[in-house]
Design goal:
There is one protein chain. This protein is mostly helical and about 120 residues long. The chain has a domain at about 45-115. The protein has six helices and no strands. The longest helix has 23 residues, at about 5-25. The chain is rod-shaped, with a radius of gyration of 29 Å. About 10% of the residues are buried. It binds heme C.
Length: about 120
Amino acid sequence: MSKYTSPLITLTISIILLAACTKKQAEEPKPVVPEKPGIQVSYAATIQPIFQARCAGCHAPGRKASAAWSFDGYGTVTANAARIKQVVLVSKTMPLGGTLSAADLQSIKDWFDQGMKQ
Ligand code: HEC
């Protein structure tokens, strides 16, 4: 064997092995990442629209129930979190004269549980 043959063979085998490995990796299915229970809920994207549609009619400043709770932005919700949780999630007396969908209730619960993200 010439003194160049052996390194050449080694190199060729290395390239073939490398190519085989790379191809194998590319073909392997991606591991399925289990979804976190409960999607991250934000005030701006999810909670504000629900409260705007379902609570503001009575609780916006100047409306008939604004004395009980004045709904006027993020701060007015977080500052009254305990009372809102109580009437929406526990006693379910609000929204007065109506009900929230199961999906809305879940979003509100998740939002409180996740620390009321703005
Ligand atoms: C149809 C009108 C109406 C709607 C809609 C409504 N409320 Fe009320 N809410 C009232 C009235 C009237 C009161 C005061 C009397 C009472 O507590 O029943 C009140 C009281 C409250 C209180 C004070 C409770 C306490 O014990 O201090 C909170 C908090 C509240 N509502 C939250 C909400 C939230 C959150 C929504 C929307 C999911 C909502 N309300 C929808 C009429 C309404």
